[in-house]
Amino acid sequence: MSVGRIILLILGIIGLLISISLLMGGGALLWADNTIKDSEGYYTTRTIQIEKDSYAIVTGPADIDVDVAWDWGWGWDLGDLVTFKVEGSNNEPSNQIFIGVARESDINTYLDSVEYDEMTRFHIYPLSVDYRNHPGNMVPVAPTSQTFWTESAHGAGTQVLEWELEAGSYSLVLMNDDGSAGVDIDIVFGAKIPLLFGVGVGLLVAGTVGLFISILMIYLAVRGRRAVPSKPPEVPVLADEEGEKPIVGPEVMNQVKEKTSVGIEPNVAGVLCYVVGWITGIIFFILEKDSKFIRFHALQSIVVFGVLSVAGTVLSWMPVFGGFFRVIICILGFVLWVVLMVKAYQGEKYKILWAGDFAEKQVS
Question: How far is residue 218's CA from residue 264's CA, in Å, rounded to a whole number?
Fold first, then answer.
């Protein structure tokens, strides 16, 4: 196989991987648009109960500075891109809820020396919130008496705050409307993103076009005449003791190339089986019909990297240690990726535990 065909094949495989990612992303966005969007067009979370002994709950500041990037003369502003909604109610009948959005500097001044809890991390699945406590010994004045709020809502029962995206550094504050300590509220966060449906459709179209181009590149790279085994060199043929049956040494038989369906040297194809993990494994397992060597490496790639991908995804959901296990799996996967490609290029059927035994059994 020429260098040009190998490069074309690699580009096609990479394009295939990108196209599949685009299709999955577009499908996920369209699923979200039809599943988790409420009647007002907001994508909302489930109800979150927040109960803290401090005076306020504050989200980490959101630094928004994209005015210049979106100033293309199309008449758009940030509010056309995203509108946020916070819907909440107080679980303590004697208290009323306050929800407010303001600049970070104003909130820092208002809560100076006041004990409050800051939301530092928001987990979608499983739904949970991490906090950092800011100690203090001052009692704040009622938030309803302040005039620096960009948007606010307060009162008995369920209150709803809607805020269109603006440039600046803003935070959300949740309190009792009289400023008393002990916040016990139920909250639902939502966001309206009008462009999300169009983005989802665009990703699907781009993924479909990319998929077609990638498959065409792979086809052009592997098409052509099937590799013909080279004629073994002429060597002296010895006769057996009776002078009748010729004896051909195994070193001569080993010089006969293994026939392949993809028209690539078996060791090069073996390397390509691992280039993009289980994706290239599937491609070569489907395309290659003759070479047991290539089919072995393709199937081993599917099993090894498929299992690592699933394990990494599942373990990453674990609390506390999920990130640690994911790093370990990434390191293990990289080491195996390098070793398997080197061994394949050297023409070895290097087996990884039961995955290698399984692959060898299936292709034999």
Answer: 13
Q: Which amino acid is at 39?
A: S
Q: From the CB of residue 356, how many other CB atoms can be counted at a distance below 10 Å?
A: 19
CB atoms within 10 A of CB 122: 14
Whether domain 38-194 has CATH 2.60.120: yes
Q: Say which residue the tokens 């078996």 belong to.
A: 266
pTM value is 0.55
CA distance 174 to 49: 12
Average pLDDT over residues 256-280: 76
- 168-176 vs 56-59, strand pairing mode: antiparallel
SS3 239: strand
Domain extents in the chain: 38-194, 258-364
Which H or E element spans position 100? strand 97-103
Amino acid code (one letter) for 314: V
Q: Cα-Cα-Cα-Cα dihedral of 275, 278, 281, 286, to 10°?
A: -140
